[in-house]
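Lesson 9: reading folded outputs for more than one chain in a single document. The general rule is that every protein is listed as its sequence immediately followed by its C-alpha coordinates, and records are never interleaved. Here is the first one.
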Amino acid sequence: MPALRRKPFLRGAVVGVAAAGTLAAAAVTGSVASASTAPSGAGNATAAGPVFDCRTLASPTCYSPWQFRTAYGIQPLTARGITGRGETVVMPEFAATPGEDGVTDVRQDIARYDSVFGLPAARLKVITTLAPGASPFQAPDEYAGDVEIVHAIAPQAAIDVILIPADVSFALGVRDFNAALRMAPSLGSVVSITQGGFNESCLTSGQVATIHSALQFDREQHVTVAVASGDFGAEGQPCTATPTPARAVVFPASDPLALAVGGTSLDASHKTGAYVGETVWNRPVAGLPGVVASGGGFSGDFARPAYQADVRGIGARRGVPDVASDADPDTGIAFVEAAGGQFGIYPAGGTSAGAPVWAAIAALADQYAGRHLGFINPAIYEIGRSAQYHRAFHDVTKGNNTVQVGSVTVKGFAAGPGWDPVTGWGSPNAQVLIPLLARDVIG
Protein backbone atom coordinates (compact mmCIF):
# COMPACT_ATOMS: atom_id res chain seq x y z
CA MET A 1 0.00 0.00 0.00
CA PRO A 2 1.38 3.48 -0.80
CA ALA A 3 2.57 5.49 2.20
CA LEU A 4 0.56 8.49 1.05
CA ARG A 5 -3.04 7.52 0.43
CA ARG A 6 -4.15 11.09 -0.11
CA LYS A 7 -2.98 12.76 -3.29
CA PRO A 8 -1.16 16.09 -3.17
CA PHE A 9 -3.21 19.25 -3.44
CA LEU A 10 -3.47 19.17 -7.24
CA ARG A 11 -4.58 16.09 -9.12
CA GLY A 12 -3.10 15.45 -12.54
CA ALA A 13 -5.71 17.37 -14.52
CA VAL A 14 -5.13 21.04 -15.24
CA VAL A 15 -8.24 22.38 -13.58
CA GLY A 16 -9.48 24.48 -10.78
CA VAL A 17 -8.80 28.16 -11.09
CA ALA A 18 -11.35 30.40 -12.73
CA ALA A 19 -11.16 31.90 -16.18
CA ALA A 20 -11.92 35.49 -17.03
CA GLY A 21 -15.53 36.61 -16.66
CA THR A 22 -18.11 35.65 -14.10
CA LEU A 23 -21.08 33.36 -14.03
CA ALA A 24 -24.46 33.84 -12.45
CA ALA A 25 -24.99 31.87 -9.26
CA ALA A 26 -25.56 28.28 -10.32
CA ALA A 27 -28.84 26.66 -9.38
CA VAL A 28 -28.79 23.24 -7.80
CA THR A 29 -30.35 21.35 -10.69
CA GLY A 30 -29.61 18.11 -12.43
CA SER A 31 -28.77 14.86 -10.67
CA VAL A 32 -28.57 14.88 -6.88
CA ALA A 33 -27.87 11.65 -5.00
CA SER A 34 -28.16 11.25 -1.24
CA ALA A 35 -27.03 8.60 1.20
CA SER A 36 -27.21 8.32 4.97
CA THR A 37 -26.13 4.66 5.11
CA ALA A 38 -24.11 2.26 3.00
CA PRO A 39 -25.74 0.62 -0.01
CA SER A 40 -27.57 -2.63 0.61
CA GLY A 41 -25.15 -5.33 1.67
CA ALA A 42 -22.15 -3.02 2.00
CA GLY A 43 -21.94 -3.48 5.74
CA ASN A 44 -21.47 -7.22 5.35
CA ALA A 45 -19.05 -6.88 2.46
CA THR A 46 -16.25 -5.79 4.80
CA ALA A 47 -17.06 -7.84 7.89
CA ALA A 48 -13.49 -9.16 8.33
CA GLY A 49 -10.77 -7.13 10.01
CA PRO A 50 -8.71 -4.53 8.16
CA VAL A 51 -6.03 -5.64 5.72
CA PHE A 52 -3.98 -2.64 6.81
CA ASP A 53 -4.31 -0.75 10.08
CA CYS A 54 -2.14 2.30 10.70
CA ARG A 55 -3.31 2.38 14.34
CA THR A 56 -1.07 -0.61 15.05
CA LEU A 57 2.10 0.85 13.52
CA ALA A 58 4.81 3.16 14.75
CA SER A 59 5.18 4.57 11.23
CA PRO A 60 3.05 5.38 9.38
CA THR A 61 0.79 5.82 12.35
CA CYS A 62 -2.61 7.46 12.61
CA TYR A 63 -5.08 8.85 15.11
CA SER A 64 -8.67 7.78 15.52
CA PRO A 65 -11.33 10.49 15.25
CA TRP A 66 -11.63 10.51 19.06
CA GLN A 67 -7.85 10.86 19.55
CA PHE A 68 -7.64 13.58 16.90
CA ARG A 69 -10.57 15.52 18.37
CA THR A 70 -8.96 15.26 21.80
CA ALA A 71 -5.58 16.52 20.59
CA TYR A 72 -7.16 19.59 19.01
CA GLY A 73 -9.55 20.38 21.87
CA ILE A 74 -12.65 19.37 19.92
CA GLN A 75 -13.74 16.43 22.06
CA PRO A 76 -14.96 18.54 25.04
CA LEU A 77 -17.29 20.35 22.62
CA THR A 78 -18.43 17.07 21.06
CA ALA A 79 -19.32 15.82 24.56
CA ARG A 80 -21.52 18.90 24.99
CA GLY A 81 -23.41 18.24 21.77
CA ILE A 82 -21.43 20.58 19.49
CA THR A 83 -21.24 18.06 16.64
CA GLY A 84 -22.18 20.13 13.59
CA ARG A 85 -25.87 19.33 13.90
CA GLY A 86 -27.89 21.59 11.60
CA GLU A 87 -24.84 22.68 9.57
CA THR A 88 -23.70 21.69 6.06
CA VAL A 89 -20.15 21.53 4.70
CA VAL A 90 -19.84 21.88 0.91
CA MET A 91 -16.98 20.14 -0.88
CA PRO A 92 -16.09 20.59 -4.58
CA GLU A 93 -14.46 17.28 -5.57
CA PHE A 94 -13.14 15.78 -8.78
CA ALA A 95 -15.27 12.98 -10.20
CA ALA A 96 -13.68 9.61 -10.89
CA THR A 97 -12.36 9.02 -14.40
CA PRO A 98 -12.68 5.70 -16.27
CA GLY A 99 -9.98 3.27 -15.19
CA GLU A 100 -8.68 5.49 -12.39
CA ASP A 101 -6.88 3.62 -9.60
CA GLY A 102 -8.03 3.81 -6.00
CA VAL A 103 -11.69 4.50 -6.73
CA THR A 104 -14.12 3.09 -4.16
CA ASP A 105 -17.79 3.42 -3.28
CA VAL A 106 -17.79 6.25 -0.74
CA ARG A 107 -20.94 4.82 0.85
CA GLN A 108 -19.07 1.63 1.73
CA ASP A 109 -16.03 3.60 2.91
CA ILE A 110 -17.99 5.81 5.25
CA ALA A 111 -20.23 2.99 6.52
CA ARG A 112 -17.13 1.03 7.54
CA TYR A 113 -15.59 4.20 9.01
CA ASP A 114 -18.70 4.70 11.14
CA SER A 115 -18.63 1.05 12.22
CA VAL A 116 -14.95 1.03 13.18
CA PHE A 117 -15.01 4.34 15.06
CA GLY A 118 -18.57 4.41 16.44
CA LEU A 119 -19.75 7.45 14.49
CA PRO A 120 -23.36 8.21 13.57
CA ALA A 121 -24.49 7.58 10.00
CA ALA A 122 -23.26 10.31 7.67
CA ARG A 123 -25.67 12.55 5.76
CA LEU A 124 -24.05 12.72 2.34
CA LYS A 125 -25.48 14.38 -0.77
CA VAL A 126 -23.71 14.38 -4.12
CA ILE A 127 -24.57 16.92 -6.83
CA THR A 128 -23.59 16.07 -10.40
CA THR A 129 -24.86 19.21 -12.12
CA LEU A 130 -21.33 20.17 -13.17
CA ALA A 131 -20.32 16.59 -14.03
CA PRO A 132 -23.30 15.14 -15.89
CA GLY A 133 -23.05 11.39 -16.26
CA ALA A 134 -20.60 10.99 -13.38
CA SER A 135 -21.30 8.17 -10.95
CA PRO A 136 -22.02 10.11 -7.75
CA PHE A 137 -20.64 7.67 -5.19
CA GLN A 138 -17.58 6.42 -7.10
CA ALA A 139 -14.89 8.29 -5.19
CA PRO A 140 -11.15 8.76 -5.74
CA ASP A 141 -9.29 8.67 -2.42
CA GLU A 142 -9.18 12.48 -2.15
CA TYR A 143 -12.98 12.72 -2.36
CA ALA A 144 -13.54 9.82 0.05
CA GLY A 145 -10.94 11.06 2.51
CA ASP A 146 -12.31 14.61 2.55
CA VAL A 147 -15.79 13.32 3.39
CA GLU A 148 -14.52 11.07 6.18
CA ILE A 149 -12.38 13.80 7.78
CA VAL A 150 -15.27 16.28 7.94
CA HIS A 151 -17.48 13.51 9.34
CA ALA A 152 -14.84 12.65 11.97
CA ILE A 153 -14.61 16.23 13.26
CA ALA A 154 -18.27 17.27 12.88
CA PRO A 155 -20.07 13.90 12.90
CA GLN A 156 -23.60 15.28 12.66
CA ALA A 157 -22.96 17.92 10.00
CA ALA A 158 -24.42 17.26 6.56
CA ILE A 159 -21.92 16.96 3.71
CA ASP A 160 -22.75 18.14 0.18
CA VAL A 161 -20.26 17.12 -2.50
CA ILE A 162 -20.26 19.02 -5.81
CA LEU A 163 -18.64 16.79 -8.42
CA ILE A 164 -16.41 18.44 -11.02
CA PRO A 165 -15.01 16.69 -14.11
CA ALA A 166 -11.32 15.92 -13.67
CA ASP A 167 -10.06 15.37 -17.22
CA VAL A 168 -11.26 18.51 -18.96
CA SER A 169 -9.69 21.52 -20.64
CA PHE A 170 -8.39 24.33 -18.49
CA ALA A 171 -11.19 26.63 -19.65
CA LEU A 172 -13.89 24.15 -18.67
CA GLY A 173 -12.19 23.38 -15.39
CA VAL A 174 -12.00 27.00 -14.31
CA ARG A 175 -15.62 27.49 -15.26
CA ASP A 176 -16.65 24.56 -13.08
CA PHE A 177 -14.76 25.69 -9.97
CA ASN A 178 -16.21 29.15 -10.32
CA ALA A 179 -19.69 27.65 -10.61
CA ALA A 180 -19.13 25.42 -7.60
CA LEU A 181 -18.14 28.35 -5.40
CA ARG A 182 -21.21 30.29 -6.52
CA MET A 183 -23.42 27.27 -5.91
CA ALA A 184 -22.12 26.77 -2.38
CA PRO A 185 -24.23 29.35 -0.46
CA SER A 186 -27.43 27.65 -1.62
CA LEU A 187 -26.20 24.45 0.01
CA GLY A 188 -24.37 25.28 3.23
CA SER A 189 -22.36 27.73 5.31
CA VAL A 190 -18.85 26.25 4.96
CA VAL A 191 -16.74 25.21 1.95
CA SER A 192 -13.65 22.99 1.96
CA ILE A 193 -11.34 23.22 -1.07
CA THR A 194 -8.55 20.65 -1.24
CA GLN A 195 -8.11 20.40 -5.01
CA GLY A 196 -7.59 22.74 -7.93
CA GLY A 197 -4.77 24.96 -6.64
CA PHE A 198 -2.05 26.54 -8.75
CA ASN A 199 1.14 28.48 -8.30
CA GLU A 200 0.14 32.14 -8.65
CA SER A 201 2.60 32.58 -11.52
CA CYS A 202 0.61 30.10 -13.64
CA LEU A 203 -2.48 32.29 -13.73
CA THR A 204 -3.70 35.33 -15.60
CA SER A 205 -5.07 38.31 -13.73
CA GLY A 206 -8.50 37.58 -15.19
CA GLN A 207 -8.48 34.03 -13.85
CA VAL A 208 -7.52 35.24 -10.38
CA ALA A 209 -10.15 37.99 -10.51
CA THR A 210 -12.91 35.54 -11.36
CA ILE A 211 -12.30 33.26 -8.40
CA HIS A 212 -11.80 36.29 -6.18
CA SER A 213 -15.23 37.50 -7.28
CA ALA A 214 -16.74 34.10 -6.44
CA LEU A 215 -15.10 34.18 -3.00
CA GLN A 216 -16.47 37.68 -2.50
CA PHE A 217 -19.92 36.30 -3.34
CA ASP A 218 -19.47 33.60 -0.70
CA ARG A 219 -18.31 36.15 1.85
CA GLU A 220 -21.41 38.27 1.25
CA GLN A 221 -23.52 35.16 1.88
CA HIS A 222 -21.72 34.45 5.20
CA VAL A 223 -19.91 31.36 3.93
CA THR A 224 -16.52 30.29 5.34
CA VAL A 225 -14.10 28.96 2.69
CA ALA A 226 -11.16 26.85 3.92
CA VAL A 227 -8.44 26.12 1.34
CA ALA A 228 -5.35 23.90 1.48
CA SER A 229 -2.09 25.87 1.18
CA GLY A 230 -0.41 23.22 -0.99
CA ASP A 231 2.06 20.39 -0.54
CA PHE A 232 5.18 21.70 -2.28
CA GLY A 233 6.62 23.86 0.47
CA ALA A 234 8.08 27.22 -0.49
CA GLU A 235 7.94 26.32 -4.19
CA GLY A 236 4.16 26.43 -4.24
CA GLN A 237 2.52 24.32 -6.95
CA PRO A 238 4.67 23.79 -10.08
CA CYS A 239 3.10 24.97 -13.34
CA THR A 240 4.73 22.24 -15.41
CA ALA A 241 6.41 18.86 -15.00
CA THR A 242 9.81 20.60 -15.37
CA PRO A 243 9.43 23.79 -13.34
CA THR A 244 11.94 26.54 -12.81
CA PRO A 245 12.11 26.28 -9.00
CA ALA A 246 11.34 29.51 -7.17
CA ARG A 247 9.44 30.72 -4.14
CA ALA A 248 5.69 30.95 -4.69
CA VAL A 249 2.35 30.41 -3.00
CA VAL A 250 -0.74 28.59 -4.18
CA PHE A 251 -3.96 30.24 -5.31
CA PRO A 252 -6.79 30.27 -4.18
CA ALA A 253 -5.23 29.80 -0.74
CA SER A 254 -3.41 33.09 -1.31
CA ASP A 255 -6.66 34.96 -1.81
CA PRO A 256 -7.34 37.14 1.27
CA LEU A 257 -10.95 35.89 1.29
CA ALA A 258 -9.84 32.29 1.84
CA LEU A 259 -8.87 30.72 5.16
CA ALA A 260 -5.55 29.21 4.09
CA VAL A 261 -4.58 26.01 5.93
CA GLY A 262 -0.95 24.90 6.24
CA GLY A 263 0.44 21.58 7.41
CA THR A 264 2.09 20.14 10.51
CA SER A 265 3.33 16.83 11.89
CA LEU A 266 1.23 16.05 14.98
CA ASP A 267 2.45 14.22 18.07
CA ALA A 268 -0.34 13.08 20.39
CA SER A 269 -0.90 10.23 22.84
CA HIS A 270 -2.30 7.07 21.30
CA LYS A 271 -3.82 6.20 24.66
CA THR A 272 -5.51 9.44 25.71
CA GLY A 273 -5.30 11.61 22.59
CA ALA A 274 -3.53 14.28 24.66
CA TYR A 275 -1.64 16.83 22.60
CA VAL A 276 2.16 16.51 22.90
CA GLY A 277 3.50 18.84 20.22
CA GLU A 278 3.81 19.72 16.53
CA THR A 279 6.41 20.66 13.98
CA VAL A 280 6.20 21.89 10.39
CA TRP A 281 5.30 19.12 7.95
CA ASN A 282 8.38 18.68 5.77
CA ARG A 283 9.69 15.22 5.04
CA PRO A 284 10.08 12.69 2.23
CA VAL A 285 7.10 10.52 1.32
CA ALA A 286 7.67 7.08 -0.19
CA GLY A 287 6.57 6.96 -3.82
CA LEU A 288 6.65 10.74 -4.35
CA PRO A 289 9.61 12.61 -5.89
CA GLY A 290 11.49 15.02 -3.70
CA VAL A 291 10.18 16.42 -0.46
CA VAL A 292 6.64 17.52 0.21
CA ALA A 293 5.99 20.19 2.79
CA SER A 294 3.54 22.81 4.01
CA GLY A 295 2.90 25.49 1.41
CA GLY A 296 3.46 29.02 2.63
CA GLY A 297 4.99 32.37 1.88
CA PHE A 298 3.82 35.71 0.50
CA SER A 299 1.50 36.46 -2.38
CA GLY A 300 2.62 38.15 -5.56
CA ASP A 301 -0.99 38.91 -6.50
CA PHE A 302 -2.52 40.29 -3.31
CA ALA A 303 -1.47 43.08 -1.00
CA ARG A 304 -1.60 42.55 2.74
CA PRO A 305 -5.25 42.56 3.85
CA ALA A 306 -6.31 44.79 6.72
CA TYR A 307 -6.71 41.87 9.10
CA GLN A 308 -2.99 41.07 8.74
CA ALA A 309 -1.87 44.56 9.75
CA ASP A 310 0.47 44.78 12.72
CA VAL A 311 1.37 41.09 12.55
CA ARG A 312 5.07 40.48 13.07
CA GLY A 313 6.67 38.96 9.98
CA ILE A 314 4.10 40.22 7.47
CA GLY A 315 5.16 43.05 5.17
CA ALA A 316 3.26 44.55 2.27
CA ARG A 317 1.95 41.28 0.78
CA ARG A 318 -0.70 38.77 1.81
CA GLY A 319 0.90 36.15 4.07
CA VAL A 320 0.00 32.46 3.68
CA PRO A 321 -1.23 30.37 5.51
CA ASP A 322 -3.56 31.63 8.24
CA VAL A 323 -3.80 28.46 10.33
CA ALA A 324 -2.61 24.85 10.25
CA SER A 325 -3.52 21.25 10.97
CA ASP A 326 -1.89 17.83 10.78
CA ALA A 327 -0.81 17.07 7.19
CA ASP A 328 1.82 14.40 7.74
CA PRO A 329 0.97 11.02 6.16
CA ASP A 330 3.09 9.44 8.88
CA THR A 331 0.93 10.94 11.67
CA GLY A 332 -2.46 11.57 10.07
CA ILE A 333 -6.06 11.22 11.10
CA ALA A 334 -7.36 7.78 10.14
CA PHE A 335 -9.55 7.21 7.11
CA VAL A 336 -10.98 4.03 5.60
CA GLU A 337 -11.10 2.59 2.11
CA ALA A 338 -13.36 -0.43 1.55
CA ALA A 339 -13.36 -2.45 -1.66
CA GLY A 340 -13.55 -6.03 -2.86
CA GLY A 341 -14.80 -7.38 0.45
CA GLN A 342 -11.86 -5.88 2.35
CA PHE A 343 -11.01 -2.59 3.98
CA GLY A 344 -7.96 -0.75 5.24
CA ILE A 345 -7.36 2.00 7.77
CA TYR A 346 -4.84 4.55 6.52
CA PRO A 347 -3.35 7.87 7.69
CA ALA A 348 -4.51 10.94 5.79
CA GLY A 349 -1.84 13.32 4.55
CA GLY A 350 -1.24 16.56 2.71
CA THR A 351 -2.59 20.01 3.48
CA SER A 352 -5.67 18.64 1.75
CA ALA A 353 -6.25 16.79 5.03
CA GLY A 354 -6.12 20.10 6.92
CA ALA A 355 -8.71 22.09 4.97
CA PRO A 356 -11.55 19.63 5.84
CA VAL A 357 -10.51 19.79 9.51
CA TRP A 358 -10.83 23.57 9.55
CA ALA A 359 -14.03 23.49 7.51
CA ALA A 360 -15.51 21.11 10.09
CA ILE A 361 -14.31 23.38 12.92
CA ALA A 362 -16.08 26.28 11.22
CA ALA A 363 -19.26 24.19 11.10
CA LEU A 364 -18.91 23.47 14.82
CA ALA A 365 -18.41 27.19 15.46
CA ASP A 366 -21.55 28.00 13.45
CA GLN A 367 -23.57 25.57 15.56
CA TYR A 368 -22.05 26.93 18.78
CA ALA A 369 -22.82 30.51 17.76
CA GLY A 370 -26.29 29.72 16.48
CA ARG A 371 -25.56 31.62 13.25
CA HIS A 372 -23.35 31.44 10.18
CA LEU A 373 -20.09 33.13 11.08
CA GLY A 374 -18.91 33.33 7.47
CA PHE A 375 -15.62 35.13 6.91
CA ILE A 376 -13.66 34.37 10.09
CA ASN A 377 -10.18 35.58 9.09
CA PRO A 378 -10.40 38.94 10.89
CA ALA A 379 -11.49 37.20 14.10
CA ILE A 380 -8.70 34.61 13.75
CA TYR A 381 -6.13 37.41 13.59
CA GLU A 382 -7.75 39.36 16.42
CA ILE A 383 -7.48 36.26 18.61
CA GLY A 384 -3.89 35.70 17.44
CA ARG A 385 -2.91 39.19 18.56
CA SER A 386 -4.71 38.84 21.90
CA ALA A 387 -3.80 37.51 25.33
CA GLN A 388 -5.93 34.45 24.52
CA TYR A 389 -3.66 33.32 21.68
CA HIS A 390 -1.76 30.59 23.48
CA ARG A 391 -4.98 29.16 24.88
CA ALA A 392 -6.81 29.15 21.55
CA PHE A 393 -3.94 27.87 19.36
CA HIS A 394 -1.00 25.50 19.49
CA ASP A 395 1.88 27.74 18.39
CA VAL A 396 4.12 25.73 16.04
CA THR A 397 7.67 27.03 16.35
CA LYS A 398 9.90 24.29 14.88
CA GLY A 399 10.65 23.47 11.27
CA ASN A 400 10.60 25.15 7.86
CA ASN A 401 9.24 24.65 4.35
CA THR A 402 12.51 24.68 2.43
CA VAL A 403 12.40 22.07 -0.37
CA GLN A 404 14.90 20.50 -2.73
CA VAL A 405 13.74 20.48 -6.37
CA GLY A 406 16.25 18.45 -8.34
CA SER A 407 19.57 20.17 -7.77
CA VAL A 408 17.94 23.44 -6.70
CA THR A 409 17.17 24.34 -3.10
CA VAL A 410 14.13 26.57 -2.75
CA LYS A 411 14.79 28.30 0.55
CA GLY A 412 11.60 28.55 2.50
CA PHE A 413 10.50 30.10 5.74
CA ALA A 414 11.00 29.04 9.33
CA ALA A 415 8.30 28.55 11.92
CA GLY A 416 8.55 30.77 14.96
CA PRO A 417 6.58 32.28 17.82
CA GLY A 418 3.21 33.67 16.77
CA TRP A 419 2.19 33.86 13.11
CA ASP A 420 4.63 32.52 10.52
CA PRO A 421 4.44 31.89 6.74
CA VAL A 422 4.52 28.11 7.19
CA THR A 423 1.82 27.27 9.75
CA GLY A 424 0.09 30.63 10.26
CA TRP A 425 -1.10 31.00 13.85
CA GLY A 426 -0.82 27.24 14.32
CA SER A 427 -3.32 24.47 15.01
CA PRO A 428 -6.55 24.82 17.01
CA ASN A 429 -7.41 24.28 20.63
CA ALA A 430 -11.05 24.33 19.64
CA GLN A 431 -12.57 24.31 23.13
CA VAL A 432 -11.13 27.81 23.58
CA LEU A 433 -11.05 28.98 19.97
CA ILE A 434 -14.66 28.27 19.02
CA PRO A 435 -16.27 30.28 21.83
CA LEU A 436 -13.92 33.15 20.99
CA LEU A 437 -14.89 33.00 17.31
CA ALA A 438 -18.57 32.98 18.24
CA ARG A 439 -17.97 36.09 20.35
CA ASP A 440 -15.64 37.99 18.02
CA VAL A 441 -17.09 37.43 14.54
CA ILE A 442 -19.33 40.34 13.57
CA GLY A 443 -22.00 39.27 11.09
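And here is the second record, again sequence then C-alpha coordinates.
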Amino acid sequence: MTFDRRESRVGRRGLMSLAAVLFTAAIVSSGPTSLAQIPVPSAPPGPTGVWIDHTGRGAVEIAPCGQGQTLCGRIVWMKAPADTKGLPLLDGRNPDRTQRSRPICGLQIIGELKPQRDGSWDNGWIYDPEQGESFDVEIRLRAPDVLQVKGYKGLKFLSETFQWKRASAAPQPACPAA
Protein backbone atom coordinates (compact mmCIF):
# COMPACT_ATOMS: atom_id res chain seq x y z
CA MET A 1 0.00 0.00 0.00
CA THR A 2 1.38 3.34 -0.98
CA PHE A 3 0.95 6.42 1.11
CA ASP A 4 -0.14 9.51 -0.81
CA ARG A 5 0.65 12.74 1.10
CA ARG A 6 -2.03 14.61 -0.83
CA GLU A 7 -4.78 12.23 0.37
CA SER A 8 -3.49 12.59 3.89
CA ARG A 9 -3.82 16.38 3.77
CA VAL A 10 -7.32 16.19 2.31
CA GLY A 11 -8.18 13.66 4.96
CA ARG A 12 -7.04 15.94 7.78
CA ARG A 13 -8.89 18.92 6.30
CA GLY A 14 -11.95 16.78 5.94
CA LEU A 15 -11.73 15.72 9.59
CA MET A 16 -11.33 19.35 10.70
CA SER A 17 -14.37 20.36 8.63
CA LEU A 18 -16.34 17.44 10.03
CA ALA A 19 -15.37 18.44 13.59
CA ALA A 20 -16.51 22.03 12.94
CA VAL A 21 -19.84 20.82 11.58
CA LEU A 22 -20.37 18.50 14.55
CA PHE A 23 -19.48 21.27 17.01
CA THR A 24 -21.91 23.69 15.32
CA ALA A 25 -24.62 21.02 15.26
CA ALA A 26 -24.11 20.34 18.96
CA ILE A 27 -24.55 24.03 19.79
CA VAL A 28 -27.62 24.45 17.60
CA SER A 29 -29.25 21.23 18.82
CA SER A 30 -28.75 22.23 22.45
CA GLY A 31 -31.64 24.66 21.94
CA PRO A 32 -32.39 28.12 23.25
CA THR A 33 -32.28 27.05 26.90
CA SER A 34 -28.51 26.58 26.72
CA LEU A 35 -28.03 29.91 24.96
CA ALA A 36 -30.20 31.65 27.56
CA GLN A 37 -27.65 30.74 30.21
CA ILE A 38 -25.00 32.88 28.55
CA PRO A 39 -24.85 36.19 30.44
CA VAL A 40 -25.94 39.12 28.30
CA PRO A 41 -25.34 42.69 29.43
CA SER A 42 -28.61 44.27 30.45
CA ALA A 43 -29.99 47.31 28.67
CA PRO A 44 -29.38 50.61 30.44
CA PRO A 45 -32.13 51.39 32.92
CA GLY A 46 -34.84 53.81 31.90
CA PRO A 47 -36.12 56.80 33.83
CA THR A 48 -38.24 54.69 36.17
CA GLY A 49 -36.99 54.30 39.72
CA VAL A 50 -36.25 56.47 42.74
CA TRP A 51 -34.34 59.70 42.13
CA ILE A 52 -32.74 62.09 44.63
CA ASP A 53 -33.59 65.63 43.52
CA HIS A 54 -31.03 68.34 42.80
CA THR A 55 -31.27 69.73 46.34
CA GLY A 56 -30.71 66.38 48.07
CA ARG A 57 -33.71 67.14 50.30
CA GLY A 58 -36.20 64.87 48.55
CA ALA A 59 -36.62 61.72 46.49
CA VAL A 60 -39.14 61.13 43.72
CA GLU A 61 -40.25 57.74 42.46
CA ILE A 62 -40.96 57.74 38.73
CA ALA A 63 -43.17 54.89 37.55
CA PRO A 64 -45.70 54.03 34.84
CA CYS A 65 -49.16 55.42 35.51
CA GLY A 66 -52.63 55.71 34.09
CA GLN A 67 -53.74 54.14 30.85
CA GLY A 68 -51.10 53.62 28.21
CA GLN A 69 -47.44 54.50 28.29
CA THR A 70 -47.14 57.52 30.55
CA LEU A 71 -44.90 58.16 33.53
CA CYS A 72 -45.74 59.88 36.81
CA GLY A 73 -43.70 60.75 39.87
CA ARG A 74 -44.43 61.19 43.53
CA ILE A 75 -42.37 62.29 46.49
CA VAL A 76 -41.35 59.16 48.41
CA TRP A 77 -38.88 60.67 50.87
CA MET A 78 -38.06 64.04 52.38
CA LYS A 79 -35.06 64.94 54.52
CA ALA A 80 -37.31 67.15 56.68
CA PRO A 81 -40.97 66.12 56.18
CA ALA A 82 -42.19 68.01 59.25
CA ASP A 83 -42.30 71.65 60.34
CA THR A 84 -40.80 73.00 63.60
CA LYS A 85 -43.88 71.79 65.52
CA GLY A 86 -43.44 68.25 64.20
CA LEU A 87 -46.45 68.47 61.88
CA PRO A 88 -46.18 67.28 58.27
CA LEU A 89 -45.25 69.98 55.75
CA LEU A 90 -48.35 70.91 53.75
CA ASP A 91 -48.92 72.08 50.20
CA GLY A 92 -49.66 75.56 51.55
CA ARG A 93 -48.71 77.49 48.39
CA ASN A 94 -51.01 75.55 46.08
CA PRO A 95 -53.12 77.98 44.02
CA ASP A 96 -56.13 75.70 44.68
CA ARG A 97 -57.09 76.50 48.29
CA THR A 98 -58.76 73.10 48.68
CA GLN A 99 -55.39 71.38 48.12
CA ARG A 100 -53.42 73.32 50.72
CA SER A 101 -54.03 70.85 53.54
CA ARG A 102 -52.43 67.86 51.81
CA PRO A 103 -48.99 66.72 52.97
CA ILE A 104 -46.08 67.28 50.60
CA CYS A 105 -44.54 63.92 51.53
CA GLY A 106 -46.31 61.41 49.26
CA LEU A 107 -47.56 64.08 46.84
CA GLN A 108 -47.65 63.37 43.09
CA ILE A 109 -45.49 66.06 41.48
CA ILE A 110 -44.96 64.65 37.94
CA GLY A 111 -47.64 63.52 35.54
CA GLU A 112 -48.52 62.59 31.98
CA LEU A 113 -44.96 62.19 30.62
CA LYS A 114 -45.05 60.53 27.21
CA PRO A 115 -42.19 58.74 25.43
CA GLN A 116 -40.56 60.64 22.58
CA ARG A 117 -38.67 59.29 19.57
CA ASP A 118 -35.39 60.76 20.81
CA GLY A 119 -35.53 58.73 24.04
CA SER A 120 -36.78 61.56 26.24
CA TRP A 121 -40.14 61.77 28.03
CA ASP A 122 -42.05 65.01 27.45
CA ASN A 123 -45.44 66.73 27.26
CA GLY A 124 -46.08 66.22 30.94
CA TRP A 125 -46.19 68.47 33.98
CA ILE A 126 -44.17 68.94 37.14
CA TYR A 127 -45.40 70.67 40.28
CA ASP A 128 -43.10 72.58 42.64
CA PRO A 129 -44.74 72.68 46.09
CA GLU A 130 -42.20 75.27 47.29
CA GLN A 131 -43.54 77.74 44.69
CA GLY A 132 -47.06 76.34 44.35
CA GLU A 133 -46.59 76.35 40.60
CA SER A 134 -46.75 73.78 37.78
CA PHE A 135 -44.50 73.68 34.73
CA ASP A 136 -44.19 71.67 31.54
CA VAL A 137 -41.47 69.03 31.95
CA GLU A 138 -39.12 66.91 29.90
CA ILE A 139 -36.94 64.21 31.44
CA ARG A 140 -34.01 62.50 29.78
CA LEU A 141 -31.62 59.84 31.01
CA ARG A 142 -28.09 61.27 30.69
CA ALA A 143 -26.36 58.26 32.25
CA PRO A 144 -27.73 55.16 33.99
CA ASP A 145 -27.72 57.09 37.27
CA VAL A 146 -28.29 60.67 36.06
CA LEU A 147 -31.68 62.06 35.07
CA GLN A 148 -31.97 65.48 33.45
CA VAL A 149 -35.18 67.24 34.47
CA LYS A 150 -36.09 70.28 32.39
CA GLY A 151 -38.96 72.47 33.60
CA TYR A 152 -40.35 75.05 31.18
CA LYS A 153 -43.37 77.21 30.45
CA GLY A 154 -44.32 76.56 26.84
CA LEU A 155 -40.89 77.29 25.31
CA LYS A 156 -37.95 75.06 26.14
CA PHE A 157 -35.33 77.75 25.61
CA LEU A 158 -36.87 79.47 28.66
CA SER A 159 -36.26 76.48 30.88
CA GLU A 160 -34.54 75.48 34.06
CA THR A 161 -32.62 72.20 33.97
CA PHE A 162 -31.64 70.05 36.96
CA GLN A 163 -29.70 66.82 37.39
CA TRP A 164 -31.20 64.15 39.64
CA LYS A 165 -29.21 61.15 40.88
CA ARG A 166 -30.61 57.62 41.03
CA ALA A 167 -30.98 56.40 44.61
CA SER A 168 -28.89 53.30 45.28
CA ALA A 169 -31.49 52.16 47.83
CA ALA A 170 -34.91 53.40 48.86
CA PRO A 171 -34.36 56.32 51.27
CA GLN A 172 -35.83 55.85 54.73
CA PRO A 173 -38.12 56.69 56.37
CA ALA A 174 -40.40 56.64 53.34
CA CYS A 175 -43.43 58.86 52.86
CA PRO A 176 -46.78 57.17 53.33
CA ALA A 177 -48.21 55.83 50.07
CA ALA A 178 -50.97 58.01 48.66
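What the second record shows: DSSP finds two helices and eight strands in the chain.
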